[in-house]
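Fold this sequence, please.
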Amino acid sequence: MEFSDFLFDGPDSTPLTFILAHGAGAPMDSPFMTRVARGVAAEGFRVARFEFPYMRARRLGGKRGAPDREPVLRQSWLEAIGLAGGGRRVAIGGKSLGGRIASMVADEAGVRGVVCLGYPFHPPGQPERLRTSHLETLATPALIVQGTRDPFGTRQDVAQYRLSPSISIHWLEDGDHSWKPRASSGGTEAQNLSEGIDAACRFLKTL
């Protein structure tokens, strides 16, 4: 990974840089990632987006390879943190897979905080396959912004988990994994996106 691989939004230099990683299926410049990055940057943060090797390979060659294995994803995060100035200068997070791996390296890297945008607590339809063991002992301050009907972890699901007291959760009413509510809810995707970005910004300002 090179410094030139980042996609930046916001001021050139700020006391805190927020590094943002994509989910399993969409790149760093997807509409969701772009909306979040620009929304956070509008609050005065420098936002740095990057892609894992498999996604960079898709961009260069067009082939839809599977996500990299966990050790590669973790190493990519550690490299990104180092390039952005090191743990105490950054907060990290991302969409789904990107946020999950961020939460796995946060304590090791000594970052100031983690923001998970739709955490994949378990695969859809497989609630027994939990991805929460490291969340029980996470020491880094963390925020999870989650739709209440996310198939990767609904509000009812998450209420049963044992999570570290360092983790707070902001629930978006009727949101799915990308925070989109049903039309019958009376809410809109734009409203949930705005609320989720506001929650992330409030958290980042506390770090």
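The longest strand covers residues 90-95. The chain is about 30% helix and 15% strand.
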